[in-house]
């Protein structure tokens, strides 16, 4: 079956069974491999993308229900050929990226948080990240990066 999607502002057409997870469509059909398949059970956050105005676990979302709202992936966070997004910059600067498996999902969740709350405290950041598992960093540097990115974004306003 053919489905029309809006991904990072581009119209895309894919021909797959309707129950195919959005994550598989992004990675296998559209070659957008930023979102990662960690658990494939909705528990690790590595596959997080944005659908409309909310983040979703794309490993659990059938493509058939992702056609009505715009999809944003980590590939669309920074402007093409532009600098990294402040969240990406801060994660690198603060040492919040080690193996990187969790990073695309972290970026999507943190961008979502900072859009809703431009001045979060550490507790709010930790709460927002409750569905994003990182096995490497111990989270402290990721929280630090989120607070640093929030400050940079406020300053840029
Ligand atoms: S791969 Fe989707 S939540 Fe783990
Ligand atoms: S940096 Fe390795 S899982 Fe987070």
Automatic annotation (TrEMBL):
The keyword Iron-sulfur applies. Signal peptide: none annotated. The keyword Iron-sulfur applies. Keywords: 2Fe-2S, Iron, Iron-sulfur, Metal-binding, Oxidoreductase. GO terms for molecular function: 2 iron, 2 sulfur cluster binding; metal ion binding; oxidoreductase activity. InterPro entries: 2Fe-2S-bd (IPR002888), 2Fe-2S-bd_dom_sf (IPR036884), 2Fe-2S_ferredoxin-like_sf (IPR036010), 2Fe-2S_ferredoxin-type (IPR001041), 2Fe2S_fd_BS (IPR006058), Beta-grasp_dom_sf (IPR012675), Diverse_Oxidoreductases (IPR051452). Residues 1-77 form the 2Fe-2S ferredoxin-type domain. This is (2Fe-2S)-binding protein. It comes from Pseudonocardia asaccharolytica DSM 44247 = NBRC 16224.
